[in-house]
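Hey L., structure's done. Input below.
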Amino acid sequence: MHTSIVGAAPPIWRRLELPSGMVLSEVNATLLAAYEWSGDRQHVFTTPYGLVADLDAGLPAADERTVTLAEALSRRTFQYRYDLGDAWDVLVRLEKTHHPDPTQAYPRCTDGARAAPPEHILGGIHGYSSVLSVLGHPNHPDHAQLTEFLDEDFDPELFALSEVDAALRD
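Output:
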């Protein structure tokens, strides 16, 4: 499946292979690992069956432990929102199905592009766009404020496939 952060320009995406029988609570853990987010914030899936979430979040939604990936992808796409305030939206799209390779461990990441935005950036993808606009300009008046949550060596173009793939199985 192909996952991409909605509104990211240039695109930030991951290609993931997951068993179709995974429940959405497991898909949540996979997406958190793929985008290097902590899981400290609430999330919700918007699927053909309506909203699906962790019941502990107290949202009017179906239990994510009871809906499978195959069910959520019955119309080939669904949306995942991480952080209901800042709204990191991820579009999940089925690209193709295949039989599992017994020599591979799943879930796995097979491709992707660009570093995931740090989840602590205010304003979701719009806030991240502001960060990117000042990142290479240390004399910009908003540089210190907008980049305060970035590691010194943060590179928005870096995608480390082997690290992301390993994180999916940790």
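The domain at 2-114+160-168 is CATH 3.10.290.30 (Structural Genomics Hypothetical 15.5 Kd Protein In mrcA-pckA Intergenic Region; Chain A). The mean pLDDT is 93.

-- N.
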